[in-house]
Amino acid sequence: MKKKKYISRRKSKAGTISWQVVIPYTDEDNEKQIYNKSFSEIEYGTAAAARRAALDHRDRMIIEIRSGRVKRRAPTIAPLYKRSLDVFPQRYNTRRNHYYFYRHAVEAYGNMEIQDVKVADIQQSINDYASTHTRDMTMKCLGVWKQIYKTAAVLEIPIPDKTVGVVIPRQTAPEKKKPVSISDEDFSRFLATLQNYHQYDAIGRYRSRIIWFMLMIAYHTGMRPSEIYALTADDVHLDAGHPYISVNKAIGSDLTQRNVPVKVKSASGYRDIPVSEELHRILADLMSWTKHEYLISDYDGSIFSTDFVSNYIHLVSKAAGVPFNAYMLRHKFATDLQRTEAPRTVQDLMGHASFSMSMEYARSSEDDRIQAVKNRKTPEKVVSKVVSDA
């Protein structure tokens, strides 16, 4: 080996001498790489000392490269994000949502090597995103950054997780709360509009009727829309001593496609829901009318898309002049149960992992709040003291 191979001498305009070690090589992925490191006389005292250090370093690095132990340059954010999809497989819908966050907040940093990304960079991306989005959405956006650093950890890239130093900023604008409850009167008004909506062709008439059946099941059972779309005749037991619906799957996405049957959210999601007399009649009518495998499916028997049905309901809602979405019926079911049933019963019927989750769905009415204030028990001594002080 020639003594000066892979080493070059450089002289700055100020006259400072430095020695540059430049070693081209091919990595284990058969990709061309270049290792380089500079040794300056300022750092080592003299040009001769810097040259000796460069020679020693060159010899060590040649051995490292030939043995395959050389550390490659750290990857940039963009390929790490793509690799994360393989390291942490996601359902189709989740992957689509994550890409939305990546494109709007992370992609701008895609060409930066991960070791060059600073906490301030991530904080800035989160601040920019939070300025126009809710705190919940911003938390999900930060989750994409976290997934990138988790991927780096799995690939044994020695980079500390910079997301631990990031703070979710406060929202500057108040978040508009969407209505989550509906009165029986407004629900009846919506249903009347639905039954007369899009009646000018067979497909429209079918869709309005089948969505009516879906909403009736939701009203009487509190089931998630995705669980209702997955119902087949085998899940409905009307001839049992105590008729019930068996909830054991939902319509969602797998690793490659949308709108396919998947497992319910959690173990608590598997449940049997008793069928009331009114719902018994509705289900009997539905099962004698539909000829499709999935009881609540589109005109051609294809599985309903949650987005499609939600949009259809939104259009009917506008026509009726009543704010409404299918999930309001799940909230209503939980609220009605809270007034009469034991907490564990509510939790089991809702299919929640904890009672606190069921409580999140329950809403009190104005009459409930008025009655609660009237029923409040106040200690007599406190009342009498306030009266005497007055």
Which shape, going by the Cα principal axes?
elongated
Tell me the distance between the termini: 102 Å
Unreliable parts: 382-390
List how many beta strands DSSP finds: 8
Widest β-sheet, arrangement of strands? 1-2-3
**Helix coverage percent of residues?**
40-55%
Number of helices: 16
General description of the model:
With 390 residues, the chain is mainly alpha-helical. Helix content is 51%, strand content 11%. The chain has helices spanning 41-44, 47-67, 77-87, 92-106, 119-130, 135-154, 184-195, 202-221, 225-229, 277-289, 306-320, 327-340, 343-350, 355-361, 366-375, 380-389; strands spanning 7-11, 17-26, 32-40, 236-237, 244-247, 250-253, 258-262, 271-274. It starts with 6 loop residues before the first strand and ends with a helix.
